[in-house]
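can u pls check wat happens w/ zinc ion
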Amino acid sequence: MNQEYINKIKDITKYYRKYKNILELILYNYENLDFYIRIDYDSKHNKYYVHFTNLNDYQGKLDKGVLSSSFIIDEVIKSIYNDLNKLDKKEYININDTYFDYVYFHAYYNNTEYHYEYNKYTPKEIIKLNNIIRTIFLCLPHRLLYLFNELLAIENNTVSDYEYYKFFKFNLKKDNIDNLFDVNSIDEGNSYINNHQIRFLEYISPLKTYYGVLEDNIHRLHIITIYYDEKNNIMKLTCSKNEHMHCKHEYAILESIKNKKKIPFYKVRYVYKDESLLNKLTSFNNILLSIGCDNVNMNIITYEGILLKVPLKDKNGNLNFEVIEDDKDNTLSNKLNNI
Ligand SMILES: [Zn+2]
């Protein structure tokens, strides 16, 4: 966790100093949130509260716009204490050197300290901690439940769903992309670059998305989309043939983006003559990204990152497409003129 956030937590701790702190839970860089949750005891009124804040909202002034709290009934506290007693390990620290998904848990009860730090999912060794996290989240607004579902993903065997749709914080200018990939992906990704296997790569700014097409060693095409919000440093990577997060194809595209490489797509417009095709194509914008054509079909890359083959001609033999942007040799226009 960086110093700025450590200082923010210190400020909040100071703010609540009249209470006795029982428990702290920090989710740092977790699903783009930096969440600080604490349970405090107010001895004057003999009441417990859960206080929580998104640390990103705190920019120098602590007030009700930043801090939220709710009262917790005694039964809930009893259940948390009960679950703390059942934990086998009092301390567990296993943090990877990654940019995201840091979880910190600290509790103090019955002269015993409980201290756990890990990334993303609650590790099996301390899986009983999930009972407590579940209880805490039930005291929080329901819109935060998705975070808790992710923390518990291992328990529910749903990890892959969360991996695939993941947005994360990343600064393309400052952060090292090597930290996102394993060594093999980096080696093989570099060999794609050196062998000029990237066919197309272009940033479509209204969609804040880079589209890349890479041809692998057995001539299969991989379509890589990289969403990148430069202002807020938020990224999401997907690859069309990828079962796991962060593959070698994504590395090759990301590394090329860093090196300012650009290989524009052909841009074509679908000329609406065939009503049945029109219905299929209504989800497209007027301008379509193309990687070229064969004698029958135009190969379109949809904005969802899917390769779609659309017939070049309608049933009367008229061309369905006009070329909006070609390469410098007019490759696509020449090919269409000869069909
Ligand atoms: Zn891939």
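Residues 222, 239, 241-242, 247, 249-250 surround zinc ion (CB under 6 Å).
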